[in-house]
What we know:
Distance between the termini: 26 Å
Number of domains: 1
Shape: rod-shaped
Low-confidence stretches: none
Order of helices and strands: HEEEHEEEEEEEEE
Largest sheet: 4 strands, antiparallel
Strand content: 35-45%
Number of helices: 2
Strand order of the largest sheet: 1-8-9-12
Number of strands: 12
Amino acid sequence: MAHILSNWQWSGDFTVASGLYFTPSILGGSVDIARGVSGSQRANVVPGQPISLPNPSALEWFNTAAFCVPGTSCVNPVGSAFGDAGRNTIEGPGSIILNMSINRSIPIKESRNLDLRFTANNVFNHVNFASINTAVNSLTFGEVTSVGNMRRITVQARFRF
């Protein structure tokens, strides 16, 4: 039993990252697309509304009430076309990832070895949200739109002779 369980090598890495920042934008109509500005207009910030939430979820990552479409009666006078939201004002989701691998080289004869390697990415299968919808006039405004990679385990065997 000691022969089977000995001489294994372990390696791994642990990553904790803060989220990327996003800019609230406005989805444009066909006139905006023809001018080349679709999605580049900024939203308005509603005064007094915090942007971050104490307990964000996949359905509402940030306070969607903190932004509105320019030209509506929410902040600026009706008819104003430009929003006042700053660039990169919404903090996106962070990530936590643990990757590990174990490997062993087993001698078989004089110059022959069997190398075994087991690799696991995202060992605990932690859900890492990747992107959020920041288009104010979208039906899914404020929702998480994608996730990172889930757990992946690979096994490699190499016979050297």
